[in-house]
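Proteins fold reproducibly. Take a sample protein:
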Amino acid sequence: MKTATTYFLLLVGLLLVACQQPSEQTNSAETSPADSSLTDEELLTLVQKNTFQYFWDGAEPASGLARERIHLDGDYPQNDQNVVTTGATGFGVMAILVGIERGFISREQGFERMQKIVNSLEKADRFHGAWPHWLQGETGKVKPFSPKDDGGDLVETAFLVQGLLTVREYFKDGNAREQALAKKITQLWEEVEWDWYRNGQDVLYWHWSPNHGWAMNFPVSGYNECLIMYVLAAASPTHGVPPEVYHKGWARSGDITADAEQYGYKIPLEHNGQQGGVGPLFWAHYSYLGLDPRNLKDRYADYWLHNTNHTLIHRAYCIDNPKDYEGYGEEAWGLTSSYSPPPRGYAGHSPNEDLGVISPTAALSSYPYTPEESMKVIRHLYEDLGNKVWGKYGFYDAFSEEQDWYPRRYLGIDQGPIVVMIENGRSGLLWDLFMGAPEVQAGLKKLGFESPALK
């Protein structure tokens, strides 16, 4: 059976390959000197501020939702510059909270944008409460992600709801307008029919379509990026699922556990489809933008240990550099799903699939796990590579020194975790908010999790 992530990569690769044709102009200009006098704290704030702008100035104007991609070269072969993505919007609303707290925008500005986003989501197409992967930004109508993927996407919905619940917790004790927004978010969250997406089984299915039913046929099992979906499904007060859906479906009746080790780092969970290896680093990010991995444990794993070791394996692999790619090392590591040089277009980079591409989001979004090691990467990218990899919305999505490939392009799902995870490493802001939601507390206890954040 193909894993959920395999499906994602295959489809996105087909959809994005047209965006990365060999004739594309790349920004390989001489690097401008950067300000090396910035302290670590100043540089982290600068990275957060520029990357935050992807979701602020770069948002789709009619809806306020996060664009799927932004190409500074203006080349959109599929004319999809106003297509928005629900998962990245979930990441983006969390980034906006960071923007408020860091003073990039005012609380009132942030609130107004949140209100616009929530109003757009309220009117957008939904399928048994779940949003689709892509929406047309101007209309809120579904844009099919693939021929049969034209309905609800429960994984992207989970990423979105993770963000919305964090926003709710931030505003719920505010003024009357803020409290009204929080109540509207609660309504949207309670309308998601997580139980419908069981399809009568003890597992959650990724998709359902009004035109094709369950034809996509992707039951989601771990371990990959989808843990948050099962936590939220268990946590729902209106359409919750029983614990056996998690233990039999996600954890595969215990078969999720592993006794793997690479470069001296143990991995307690089997990474789906990786044949004893580890997956792309976004698996250590997407579910943990709100879900606090610090001392988070269940019967299967210690998730802080798991995610830290996952990150350190990537770093050790890039230092080892068995394929001898130019540019890899202690200051340039981290493999994850991102743009890739032609003809691939998009790939799930990992030690098992190493194409010589470094994706800045990999090491930067791992900042909570490896603060010193990630900081070295940030300084190298900013100070040494400069405008080859740095632009209007922060670091570009990916680059390859091996192939002298430096596209001036961004993907929303890669930009969002940078802002959020750096902030979690600095202050724990988003972790504290999300874990404070009473439904989340109840859902984690229901599944047998332990955490210092559980009251």
